[in-house]
Amino acid sequence: MLQAALAQQELFVEYQPLIDLQTGEITATEALVRWQHPHLGRLSPASFIPCAESSGQITAVGHWVLEQACQQRMTWTRIGVPLFPVMVNLSPTQLHEPAFADLVRAVLERTGMSADLLQLELTEGALLQTTKAIEHQLSKLGDLGIRLVLDDFGMGHASLHYLRSFHFHKLKIPRELMEGVATHERDAVIVRAIIDLGHKLDMGVIAEGIEALDQVTFLRKESCDEGQGYLFSRPIGPARIPELIAQDRSTRPLPIARTTTATQQALDTQP
Asked: Beta strands 11-20 and 26-37: pairing type?
């Protein structure tokens, strides 16, 4: 079914904004694949990405998402949407392709998108079996001017080694570490240390899974750069991004999804 989904255009891409936690501006959008199955309905990535990985189809799916995201970024550009980057997730399988960096370059040339508008996101799992070939691919991607983001930082066993070995531009604090950041001191200490480490290594820091105002308050105080989560916006269709940009400009300091007046007032009075 997954093999047929691409050919039958059942897969589609939604985009979740990333927010500058100090200014409230949208800084990027993350491309997230979805599947509208004709009989099973809408399927989340968790229900089919493992199948795609184990069957080897993740390569075709990943390439398709990359192409769609770059085309969409250029569509937004043509209608005047600000030039923030689009972020695309990579699988370990894609990194093992000898010509992967060349494929990315070809997509950029075909769509006309500048390399600095593409951010590629890797989990630690993608780097667990690092080889010279993978190192070469990452180096070539860097030479193209593409920025690399390390996802789920702190959830694996070799995070610090990866920071030492590869040139990442940003790291992401996973939602698992964010859940208790405003209520449990040990969680707060860990997240604070990650933010400090990222900044000392000249990297931007993104916190994902933000769902509460007290998390935003904590992250602002600790000078975390960007945030992502349902508090700001769920993943949405590409046609709604310009609408969200307009909302962003009218509801500073932060665009909050489905806010009540009281919630927005509480946010506006935060330091």
From this structure: antiparallel
* pLDDT tens-digit series, residues 191-238: 999 999 999 999 999 999 999 999 999 999 999 999 999 999 999 999
Predicted TM-score (pTM) of this structure: 0.88
Q: What is the pLDDT of residue 207?
A: 96
Supply the DSSP string of 91-139, one letter for each residue: -HHHHT-TTHHHHHHHHHHHHT--GGGEEEEEEGGGGTT--HHHHHHHH
Give CA–CA dist 224/222, Å, rounded. Answer: 6
| pLDDT tens per residue, range 157-168 | 556 777 777 788
Q: Which tokens in the block code for residue 187?
A: 């969680």
Q: What is the mean pLDDT of residues 81-93?
A: 91
Enumerate domains of the chain plus CATH numbers. Answer: 2-268 (3.20.20.450)
* Cα Rg of the chain, angstroms: 19
> From the centroid of its chain, how far is CA 141?
17
2 Cβ neighbours under 8 A, 6+ residues apart? 35, 48, 51, 52, 55, 57, 61
The answer to whether 18 touches 204, Cβ cutoff 8 Å, is no
